[in-house]
Design a protein that fits this description.
The complex is a heterodimer. By secondary structure, chain A is an alpha/beta fold. In chain A, 39% of the residues lie in helices and 19% in strands. Chain A contains seven helices and seven strands, in the order H-H-E-H-E-E-H-E-E-H-E-H-E-H. In chain A, a hairpin with a 2-residue loop joins strand 4 and strand 5. Classes of the chains: A alpha/beta, B mainly beta.
């Protein structure tokens, strides 16, 4: 019984300590064929295009300063968005275009696959949500969506930037985000090196692109800037402490 | 119960639930909530090289939560979706000095 308790608590603690998740397509074996992933900010409004470009570059810098450089490249083009490139765009018809709630969803990342690869991706920002009027929030939204682009799903850790809800204030990338990104980048590079073809990727013969794995970030205010999830280090410590207590417990297993 | 290790284990597990992340994230619930009227919109002086922003000054009418009073200054992205109208009433929520919600009160 003691061993079972120790095992369960360690498992629970470890599960929370490693709270990041991988998107379904990435875990099935789809990946970017090369880095950097080139994104173009496309907008007919020059001022808005510049604003999004600046924030997207900041978001890239934030990830790359903690992981490795050369993962994304951001440029801009003043034109209507096209559908054959990796684009970041602003949508004033967000709900209609994506089918998501305009009042709670701040942005969405959509990845399209072809053969074994993620062929292209699109980040659509909700142009009707008031919170996208604030530099810190919009910057955090872009950091979050760029994480989805490389294969990070929503984290179970409420303090991570990859948590499904946006936290205010934002304290920067959490170590859970860094661990998740380290894993996805490392795994992508490994697949690129060996030319990995997943058995789940339609035999590598698919020519049509198929959209996969939308990721969104909702809005949520936490009373202390936290939220669900808790501190993983604390959880790990607590789990081990409880396990230790269980080992030292004077109560012996006497079945009724 | 203390003599039944399994019951003890389950109790500990339930107690530890929120710590392990089983709780649901709260909806908008920031510690400072006020009703305020937009009284001034300030444009930055001179040319800006970075992001274009504007500062909106809100005159607090009523503190719903927390103890904020007087004026509140909020910086907005100039080309974002929110257009603040002077004289209109807004619900403003803050957490540790950072804005976490802003909406007009109809």
């Amino acid at each position: 019984m003691k061993k079972l308790i120790v095992f369960c608590f360690t498992l629970l603690a470890w599960q929370n300590a490693m709270a990041y998740r991988i998107t379904e397509d990435f875990s099935k074996g789809f990946y970017w064929s090369s880095f950097p992933v080139n994104f173009i900010v496309m907008d007919t409004d020059a001022n808005r295009m510049q604003m999004i470009t600046n924030l997207a570059k900041n978001a890239v810098q934030e990830w790359e300063s903690t992981i490795t450089e050369g993962l994304w490249n951001i440029t801009s083009q003043q034109s209507s968005p096209t559908s054959n490139r990796n684009i970041i765009r602003w949508s004033t018809k967000f709900g209609k275009e994506t089918g998501l709630s305009e009042s709670t969803t701040l942005a969405v990342a959509i990845r399209y696959t072809r053969g074994p690869y993620i062929a292209r991706a699109e980040i659509i920002i909700n142009g009707n949500h008031p919170m996208n009027s604030f530099e810190e929030q919009l910057n955090t939204v872009l950091v979050h969506e760029l994480g989805h682009i490389l294969g990070l799903d929503h984290s179970d850790n409420g303090q991570a930037v990859m948590a499904p809800t946006l936290q205010v204030p934002y304290y920067g990338l959490h170590w859970d985000d860094q661990m998740g990104m380290d894993y996805t980048v490392g795994e992508t590079k490994r697949r690129q090196l060996i030319g990995y073809v997943s058995p789940l990727s339609s035999s590598g013969e698919t020519t049509e692109e198929s959209p996969l794995s939308c990721g969104t970030v909702d809005m949520s205010g936490g009373s202390s800037g936290g939220g669900s999830g808790g501190n993983p280090i604390f959880s790990l410590g607590l789990g081990l402490l409880l396990a230790l207590l269980a080992l030292k417990s004077p109560f012996k297993g006497r079945a009724a | 119960m203390a003599e039944k290790p399994f019951a003890w284990f389950v109790t500990c597990l339930l107690w530890a639930g929120p710590v392990f992340g089983f709780s649901v994230a709260p909806q908008i619930n920031c510690p400072t909530q006020v009703r305020a009227i937009a009284s001034e919109v300030r444009e930055p002086e001179g040319a800006t090289t970075g992001l274009s922003k504007q500062t909106v000054v809100f005159a607090i009418e009523e503190s719903i939560k927390g103890s904020a009073s007087g004026n509140l200054e909020v910086e907005l992205l100039k080309f974002g979706p929110l257009v603040v109208e002077i004289g209109k009433e807004y619900l403003v929520q803050m957490n540790q000095g950072k804005l976490c919600w802003l909406e007009s009160v109809e």
